[in-house]
């Protein structure tokens, strides 16, 4: 089955700096890669996703890049703000099923 | 739509008691997932259903856990008997196609 690894497990940045979270996956059949943000005590919420037919997608201050050859994808947050502080999860899904394989999460702290 | 609705939000029970967690998926979604979240193990998929049929229950930790989906609008996750190591946040999620929508979760504490 699919194995998704996520790094780093914790990340602290100064407000205004950029944050990058990286994930790797093992199954070349995976073709959909969402990112979820979970604030303390809240549910995970989808913030951005990318399909395997594109290499990059942007939505305001967040972007995701995908390298299919190397089987890795990354989340980039620019101009970080304190409200970006949360746990971020990456996931991968293959066509063969509807099951997400989640990474272990990155706890991001933005220091004002 | 009110989203995925889970109940109760919090549950405190004594070891050995039966616990039932409930989930109402988003209307029209054909997949339903039960996840358990702990600090040590992150988000673990317990079981998922497609059109009310269990597809993969390999994540269910042991026979004390069972899940049902009697119709498209309701699912339960039951733990009998409960143990302190079952303490976690249990999330239900539903989907139609690619995106998951999570419920607010049930925080279970077994003392």
Q: What descriptors fit this protein?
A:
heterodimer; A: 112 residues; mainly beta; 6-stranded mixed sheet; globular; B: 111 residues; 11 strands; 57% strand
What can you tell me about this protein's structure?
The complex is a heterodimer of chains A (112) and B (111). Chain A has 112 residues and is mainly β. Helix content of chain A is 0%, strand content 58%. Chain A has strands at 4-7, 10-14, 19-25, 30-38, 45-51, 56-59, 62-67, 72-77, 86-94, 101-102, 106-111. In chain A, strands 2, 4, 5, 9, 10 and 11 form a six-stranded mixed β-sheet that branches. Chain A has a five-stranded antiparallel β-sheet with strand order 1-3-8-7-6, with no helix packed on it. In chain A, a hairpin with a 6-residue loop joins β9 (86-94) and β10. The termini of chain A are far apart. Chain B is mainly β. Chain B is built from no helices and eleven strands. Chain B has strands at residues 5-7, 10-13, 19-24, 31-38, 42-50, 53-56, 65-71, 74-79, 88-95, 100-102, 106-110. The relative contact order of chain B is 0.34. The model of chain B has no long low-confidence stretch (mean pLDDT 94).
Question: Which structural class fits the helix and strand makeup of chain A?
Answer: mainly beta
> Which structural class matches the secondary elements of chain B?
mainly beta
Instruction: Assign a percent range to the helix content of chain B.
Output: under 10%
Can you tell me the residue ranges of chain A where pLDDT is under 50 for at least 5 consecutive residues?
none
C-alpha termini separation of chain A: 41 Å
C-alpha-based Rg of chain A, rounded = 13 Å
Q: Tell me what portion of residues of chain B adopts beta-strand conformation.
A: over 45%
Give the total of beta strands of chain B: 11
Multimerization status: heterodimer
Note the main sheet of chain B.
7 strands, mixed
- The radius of gyration of chain B is 13 Å
The H/E string of chain B reads EEEEEEEEEEE
Q: Give helix % range of chain A.
A: under 10%
Distance between the termini of chain B: 36 Å
Q: Quick check: average pLDDT of chain B?
A: 94
Shape summary of chain A: globular
Query: Largest beta sheet of chain A, briefly?
Result: 6 strands, mixed
